[in-house]
Amino acid sequence: MTQGEKRAIDWDSLPHGGDLFGEMHLAETAPSAPAPRAPLFPGLALCGVAAAAAAWLSEHYGFPIILLGLLVGLSLNFISHDPRSHAGLDFASRTCLRWGIVVLGLQVTVAQIEALGPAPFAALGVVMAVTMAAGMVGAKVAGQSRFAGILAGGATAICGASAALALYGVIGKDRLSQAQFALTLVGISLASAFAMSVYPALAGELGLSDGQAGFLIGASIHDVAQAIGGGYAFSDPAGNYATIVKLARVAMLAPIVALTSLAIGPADGNTQGPLWQRLALPWFILAFLGVVALNSMVTIPRPLVDGGLVLSKTLLLLAVTATAMRSRMDLLLQMGWRAAVPVVTASIASFAAALGFAYLLL
User: Fold this and answer.
1) 86, HSE (Cβ side, Cα atoms, 13 Å)
2) Which domain holds residue 231?
3) Does pTM top 0.85 for this prediction?
4) Predicted pLDDT at 8
5) What are the Cα distances from residue 32, in Å, to 35, 37, 182?
């Protein structure tokens, strides 16, 4: 090779022509490093501040804490426009929700359900079925999807916001938008607050006995604390019975979530798998059942049970607030009054069915 030919060689065009120690080759062939995970702190801190504000307002003005969490979260919706808040808000809306439902199992035992008796328990099952059906009918009448009806009916039938959060975990945001979910939560919270204020007075005007009033209030008011408070607002015996009825509804959370999952199928649309896979419950529902079983077999100290209720409410408040902060306001405005129809029809059906059985059984 002549001297001129040597000068004509373009070393930069040759693969790793000047890579004496292989650094370029290693850099090109090495697997790419995983993208760093977004920090949770910004979103979690903002959600915590919003939830604390909702708790303060609830304590000082006596308004339902879940509803205030929703309203405060919606008012701070602009925060979710910053991508740095997404990881923390998503963590709060999913993980806090799941653990809040697990801890809720500390409030239920098998003995409490057995204390209700077979006939009232069967009647309660009918009331819940009628309520869910009414929610689906209301969604159809209002032009909403059937998933909106399932969410509204199931949440009204079981235990309000916590049931809505569990059902939404099965339905998925691909089949029901977070905006519709947030509006449903607002409707459920308002309906529950209205029921707690009005149902005890209606029971008195209708001349119901303590047992009848306890069944009516426990079987029809959405939220656990508000159902129990409404029962004791009528009388102490009514409050005791309303507590048993309401906790029996809470115990139905896992079976109804399982049946809903089987009825609507997986969110990815794969219905070809075996039945046991399609019926598989989310892990947090299984954990909820495990906590109920443990609570039924072992006497858990009362302070721990009371602390579990506070922890469950705190986690669910964080989940609700984060969900509201992540909701799209433009979709909320587009839905209008029609989004509230399933909650209204489910609430009316729940009250009517519970009142009918209260007269028949007690």
Assistant:
1) 6
2) 41-54+65-361
3) no
4) 56
5) 9, 15, 39
Closest by CA position to 53, among listed 324, 331, 304: 324
How do residues 120-136 score in pLDDT, each as one tens digit? 889 999 999 999 999 99
Contact indicator for 249, 157 with CB cutoff of 8 Å:
yes
Task: Return the pLDDT at 268.
Answer: 56
Q: pLDDT at residue 335 above 80?
A: no
Of 46, 73, 38, 81, nearest to 57 (Cα)?
Answer: 73
What's residue 349's pLDDT? Answer: 94
Distance CA 178, CA 197 (A): 29
CA distances for 91 relative to 40, 96, 192, 333, angstroms = 7, 7, 27, 26
For the segment 252-297, what is each residue's pLDDT rounded down to a tens digit? 888 888 888 888 876 655 555 555 455 556 677 788 888 888 888 8
Q: How many domains does the chain have?
A: 1
Residue 8 lies in a domain: no
In a domain, 332, yes or no: yes
What's the one-letter identity of residue 227? A
In angstroms, the CA 214 to CA 117 distance is 14
Tokens 């069967």 correspond to 122
What's the pLDDT score for residue 267? Answer: 62
Cβ–Cβ < 8 Å for 360, 204:
no
In a domain, 350, yes or no: yes
Alpha-helical segments (H) within 62-145: 65-75, 86-91, 97-104, 110-114, 118-141
Residue of 318, 269, 8, 341 lying closest to 162 (CA atoms) = 318
Establish if 60 belongs to a structural domain: no
Task: Please name which of 153, 134, 157, 298 lies closest in space to residue 219, comparing C-alpha atoms.
Answer: 157
